[in-house]
Amino acid sequence: MSNQQKVAIVTGASQGIGAGLVKAFRDRNYRVIANSRSIKPSSDPDVIAVAGDIADRAVAERLVKEALSRFGRIDTLVNNAGIFTAKPFTDFTQDDYAKNLSVNLNGFFHVTQLAIAEMEKQGSGHVVSITSSLTDHAIDGVPSVLASLTKGGLNAATKSLAIEYAKRGVRVNAVSPGVIKTPMHGPETHAGLASLHPVGRMGEIGDIVDAVIYLDNAGFVTGEILHVDGGQSAGH
């Protein structure tokens, strides 16, 4: 088995953007380690499905171990797993707070730390995190404090890591979406969600996948927060 074929780890990979990313990487001949709580085994020998909660460090360890033992390397990590809880600030429960920090921050921290350690040994690698344009441009009627707290933290960490590892061959970027048409948004919500974007529509899964693939190929880009949000972060 050649270890020269590139390898990507994708979290939150069972549906929506994550599933789109797995397909896009396979279309480009990457091998993929795909993770989510409910992911099913893959019939593709070049896709290894690892079920489990990415907030658990043992799951992150398993993802990295599988990538190295099966495929011998890690070239790209996409931190796609995340949750969004829209409530007025004073209505958030302790459980809401714990779940958002657990998935959005702990999940990022564990797998990114482990993956970057391996990338540094290789002298190359790329980390992309999926964040949210609400961190830059809050919208009246869309309460998003926990998203801003956690995804905004990922944007800041992206820049910090990009500078820390710039001379070690590891790039770190983020894609900051608007509202994307995925299974988490029922059709009855689409008209209202479309109106949140100056272009007047929701984003498609392919819009985010294209942005991730662009960044993965853009060797001179690091520390970038790429807004793919129909103009949402620019203003209303």
From TrEMBL:
<protein>
    <submittedName>
        <fullName>SDR family oxidoreductase</fullName>
    </submittedName>
</protein>
<dbReference type="InterPro" id="IPR036291">
    <property type="entry name" value="NAD(P)-bd_dom_sf"/>
</dbReference>
<keyword id="KW-0560">Oxidoreductase</keyword>
<dbReference type="InterPro" id="IPR002347">
    <property type="entry name" value="SDR_fam"/>
</dbReference>
<dbReference type="Pfam" id="PF13561">
    <property type="entry name" value="adh_short_C2"/>
</dbReference>
<comment type="similarity">
    <text>Belongs to the short-chain dehydrogenases/reductases (SDR) family.</text>
</comment>
<dbReference type="GO" id="GO:0016491">
    <property type="term" value="F:oxidoreductase activity"/>
</dbReference>
